[in-house]
Design goal:
Elements lengths: L14 E6 L22 E7 L3 E2 L6 E2 L8 E4 L5 E5 L2 E7 L3 E5 L2
Antiparallel strand pairs: 1-2, 1-7, 2-5, 3-4, 5-8, 6-7
Length: about 100
C-alpha cells in the first residue's frame, strides 16, 4: 500500500479529505465513455483524517475507522468538493464513507 501524500488541507472533527479516483474511460466491451456521460466517482484515496468527534462527556476523542492511504467508497453526492493549490479534493464526513476497499 502506498502512503498518502501530504495535503495542505487539515480536516476537523470527524471529517476526512479524499482524492477521488478517476472513473473508467471505457466499458467492459471496449466502448469509450465521453466526459458528459461519465458517472461521478464514488471511490477515492484518503489523504487526511480529522481527529474525530468528542464523546458525550467531552472527555476523549472517538477515533475514525479510516486512515490515510485507505481506498474508500463514499456516498455519491456526499461531501464538499474543494479546489486548493490547483488540486481537487473532497471533504467528507465519516458517515458519508460506506466502505473501505481492501486490495
Amino acid at each position: 500500500m502506498t502512503t498518502a501524500t501530504k495535503v495542505p488541507v487539515k480536516p476537523l472533527g470527524d471529517r476526512i479529505v479524499v482524492q477521488p479516483l478517476e472513473a473508467e474511460q471505457t466499458t467492459a466491451s471496449g466502448l469509450v465513455i465521453p466526459d458528459t456521460a461519465k458517472e461521478k466517482p464514488q471511490e477515492g484515496r484518503v489523504l487526511a483524517v480529522g481527529p474525530g468527534n468528542w464523546d458525550e462527556d467531552g472527555d476523549k476523542r472517538i477515533p475514525l475507522d479510516v486512515k490515510e492511504g485507505d481506498i474508500v467508497l463514499y456516498s455519491k453526492y456526499g461531501g464538499t468538493e474543494v479546489k486548493y493549490g490547483g488540486e481537487e479534493y473532497l471533504v467528507l464526513s465519516a458517515r458519508d464513507v460506506l466502505a473501505i476497499i481492501e486490495k
